[in-house]
Design a protein that fits this description.
- This protein is an all-alpha fold and 449 residues long.
- It has a single domain (14-219, 232-448), classed as Up-down Bundle (Growth Hormone, Chain: A), CATH 1.20.1250.
- The protein has helices at residues 15-46, 50-66, 68-75, 80-105, 112-116, 126-158, 164-193, 197-214, 234-246, 249-269, 272-278, 284-312, 314-334, 338-366, 369-404, 407-429, 435-448.
- The longest helix is centred in the last third of the chain and has 36 residues, at 369-404.
- It is globular.
- The protein starts with 14 loop residues before the first helix and ends with a helix.
Length: 449
């Protein structure tokens, strides 16, 4: 799909509404970057059990498996801007509650490095703190499902389809900077000062995001909808979205491939904090630095994704992301050198942004607006629903490897398994996600419009 039309020559064409959405997403992703360091670090201060830590990630991602389909129906029935804003308000309140709970307990929380060294134990109320992490993880995950599904369906109403790859690229690039660079850096510094500070900052970013969404002008109710009294049942709506995606081979294969990629990614990341502490022997600041790699890769990917997709073609570009993902997982699983892991994460983030820019733009082009929320939700049920499964699998793999060989091998095993699984995924994707299949899907969408 060419996006190099005359109207794409000016960034101003993206419009004020786009930049308001952009600022809200970027600020909230800064908070996500802070939280990305704070939550796993807090969990590792509460327990050293890899399965218990993996369950924190599982709780956050489980709503993508069980709540995605109804979220799609809601997105296709309400004003999408209002839905985005209300979910950011809800996340503000939830994160603020977590911040106050951590503040009231931070005197009993020791540094995870100290606990790992055996010179201090986990807090006596670790069960209570873990329960809080699990419960708030589920609630925040549910809000995220609604918010992100609505935000992705909102963008095509703000930006012309000819600009979607550029708009998504700018969005992904800035989000990567905040999520993987600025956020983790600040998160590490805040953790060094007090366990509760990152959570207060995270809450504030959600509040800013809600405020920016409030100023997006226009009516963002789904196009082609019907009156409330004439609407079909929820089951009918869900079935329509599911069958629309399932009967389109390209989108079906894309959703399955994303599910495998995300499941493998979460299997490696669920206990990554333990890998950093015990294999790489790094502290909170080092953990934050390791997250910088994602930002660098994301920035490069956001600016080069459109160019790479045009040079190689969308199909070969998607294959490249799968190959890079497998190679980086293999190298990380075999090394103990922090610098090597950092470089591998850079390439991994680069390939992830390339995948996202291409596939999100394709979905926003192919799926009709009145179905966008529901079909997106079905797609994300496949793509993101595998995350909780991958998280649990990652914790169990560490336990298995530890019992068979030792702790060192256990912490490496998720990366080695992921590397092998990428080979199988490449074989599955090769005949299904090539450029010819993509062109056919775009042609079918255009003829149906």
């Amino acid at each position: 799909m060419s996006v190099d039309s005359p109207k794409s020559s000016s960034e101003a064409k993206l419009g004020a509404n786009y930049w308001r959405l952009w600022v809200g997403n970027v600020v909230s992703n800064f908070g996500d970057g802070v939280a990305g360091v704070a939550y796993p670090w807090l969990a590792s201060a509460v327990t050293r059990d890899p399965v218990a830590i993996a369950l924190v990630a599982l709780a956050t991602r489980l709503p993508w498996l069980v709540f995605t389909l109804p979220a799609g129906v809601i997105t296709d029935r309400v004003d999408r801007r209002r839905l985005v804003m209300s979910m950011d308000v809800a996340r503000t309140a939830l994160t603020l509650a977590v911040a106050f709970i951590v503040l009231s307990n931070q005197a009993s929380l020791s540094s995870p490095e100290v606990i790992a060294a055996g010179t201090a134990g986990v807090p006596s109320n670790s069960g209570f703190l873990l329960a809080i992490l699990y419960i708030t993880g589920l609630m925040l995950g549910t809000a995220e499902v609604l918010r992100d599904n609505a935000a992705q369906t909102l963008l095509p109403s703000i930006v012309d389809k000819s600009l979607l790859q550029r708009a998504n690229g700018r969005m992904w690039g800035a989000e990567s900077v905040m999520n993987s660079f600025a956020g983790p850096v600040v998160g590490g510094l805040l953790l060094a000062a007090a366990f509760s500070l990152p959570f207060f900052v995270d809450s504030a970013t959600f509040a800013v995001a809600a405020l920016m969404t409030l100023f997006i002008a226009g009516d963002f109710k789904p196009k082609g909808g019907v009156a409330a009294t004439e609407r079909p049942s929820w089951v009918t709506d869900v079935k329509e979205g599911f069958m629309w995606l399932w009967t389109r081979p390209f989108l079906r294969a894309l959703a399955i491939s994303l599910g495998v990629l995300n499941g493998l990614g979460m299997a490696t990341m669920a206990t990554y904090v333990l890998f950093v502490q015990e294999i790489l022997e790094l502290g909170a600041t080092g953990f934050a630095v390791m997250m910088w790699a994602g930002a660098v890769g994301g920035i490069v990917g956001s600016f080069l994704a459109e160019r790479i997709a045009k040079r190689l073609g969308n199909g070969p570009s998607l294959f490249l992301t799968i190959i890079v993902g497998g190679l980086t997982a293999l190298v990380i699983g075999l090394t103990s050198v922090a610098a090597v892991v950092w470089v591998m994460f850079l390439f991994g983030a680069f390939s992830a942004v390339l995948w996202n820019v291409i596939t999100v733009s394709l979905r926003q082009t192919i799926i009709p607006d009145q179905l966008l929320g529901r079909v997106n939700s079905v797609y994300r049920m496949f793509g993101w629903g595998m995350m909780p499964i991958g998280s649990l699998a990652g914790g169990l793999l560490v336990k298995l490897g530890e019992s068979m060989v030792g702790r060192d091998f256990g912490l490496r095993l998720p990366f080695l398994v992921a590397a092998g699984a990428h080979v199988l995924l490449f074989a599955y994707a090769l005949p299904r996600l090539n450029s010819a299949r993509i062109a056919a899907a775009l042609e079918d969408a255009e003829s149906s419009a």
